[in-house]
Design goal:
There is one protein chain. This protein has 214 residues and is mainly alpha-helical. The chain is 61% helix and 0% strand. It has 2 domains: 95 residues, Orthogonal Bundle (Endonuclease Iii, domain 2); 102 residues, Hypothetical protein, domain 2 (Endonuclease III, domain 1, Orthogonal Bundle), CATH 1.10.340.30. The longest helix has 19 residues.
């Protein structure tokens, strides 16, 4: 029991120290449908571009019903700067159609149902649960994957495996807000190239730093 308490304390401290260095994450939407649509478009695309594209779709179509009836060419023109736009334009329309036909435009709140939607994997589903429904979930994107590997929280290069490792390691009451916080920490401090290790609050806990200073 003492070991569990000590482990929880160190995890809480690491998360708190990361949060101290992380800017507040900007959420363009809190509505589950638009969180879903934005996250489908976010892969390989900068947040500002994704947010602008999602806002453009919202302003034109308003909701699931509107987007389900959208023309592909119109959606493509709105999300023109999004990576893989030709694929994603079809996917967001198809997602809206599926939600309308199967769920009466109500976004489901389970991993299993969300991942039935084409283009939605566990990462996207977990973002929707956490940011759209306020349900404890851990979404593993490139930032969470990289930081988890560097710290030593995960030994895997596979995001789904890393998610399971983090779920076992981190107490559930610390899951909410973990992804957006780590995203910002990854942008500001634990960068993919030339991480700012000397300025990092958690370097004493980090395997990557220990190996770096060797």
């Amino acid at each position: 029991m003492a070991d569990e308490d000590n482990n929880r304390h160190s995890l809480s401290e690491i998360i708190s120290l990361m949060r101290d260095q992380s800017p507040l994450h900007h959420f363009e939407f809190s509505d589950p449908f638009w969180v879903l649509i934005g996250t489908i478009m976010s892969h390989r695309t900068k947040d500002a571009i994704t947010d602008k594209a999602a806002r453009g779709l919202y302003e034109k179509y308003k909701d699931c019903n509107g987007l389900s009836e959208a023309k592909y060419e119109d959606v493509l023109s709105i999300i023109d700067r999004v990576g893989f736009k030709t694929v994603k334009a079809k996917r967001v329309i198809d997602a809206a159609k599926l939600l309308k036909d199967k769920y009466n435009c109500k976004v489901p709140a389970t991993i299993e149902q969300l991942t039935e939607i084409k283009g939605v994997g566990r990462k996207t589903a977990n973002v929707v649960l956490a940011d759209g429904f306020n349900v404890p979930a851990i979404a593993v994107d490139t930032h969470v994957q990289r930081i988890s590997r560097r710290i030593g929280w995960s030994g895997s290069d596979d995001p789904d495996a890393t998610e399971q490792e983090l779920r076992r390691l981190i107490p559930e009451d610390l899951w909410l807000g973990l992804n957006p916080m780590m995203v910002e920490f990854g942008k500001k401090v634990c960068k993919p190239v030339s991480p700012l290790c000397s300025q990092c609050n958690i370097k004493q806990y980090c395997n990557y730093y220990k190996l770096k200073i060797g």
